[in-house]
Amino acid sequence: MSAGVVVYDGDCGICQASARWIERHIPSLDVQSHYEYGVEELGSVWLVTPTYNYEGAEAVARVLMLSSKRWMHVCGRIMNAPVVRLVASGVYRVIARNRRHISRALGLNACAIPSPKN
User: Fold this and answer.
1) Where are the beta strands (DSSP E) in the chain?
2) What is the distance between the alpha carbons of residues 11 and 73, in angstroms, rounded to a whole number?
3) pLDDT of 2-54, one tens digit each?
4) Example GO molecular function term (predicted)?
């Protein structure tokens, strides 16, 4: 049974790379692009769980806390601490706003065109 679904921006290179990383390292989560999830546009990552929906930096922290690897779990807990959460949210917003430019600068696919659904 899945611990939740991570929904990411399917047009964002950083988001695509992060999704692949989550699939490899946190198999208890399902990972879907916003196209697969049926959302027209997505401004930040979502973690949809049976009990609550998280967004942005809080979603990232919660994803890390679901890892079986201790260091990832600890990083998620630290990110979720009150003062750190404020900083993490600010950093997340800056990265999210500039994700396509950052993706291009890193050589990641920044403007993927979704394949047509059959």
Assistant:
1) 4-8, 29-33, 46-48, 53-55
2) 28
3) 889 999 998 888 899 999 999 999 999 999 999 999 998 888 999 999 999 99
4) protein-disulfide reductase activity
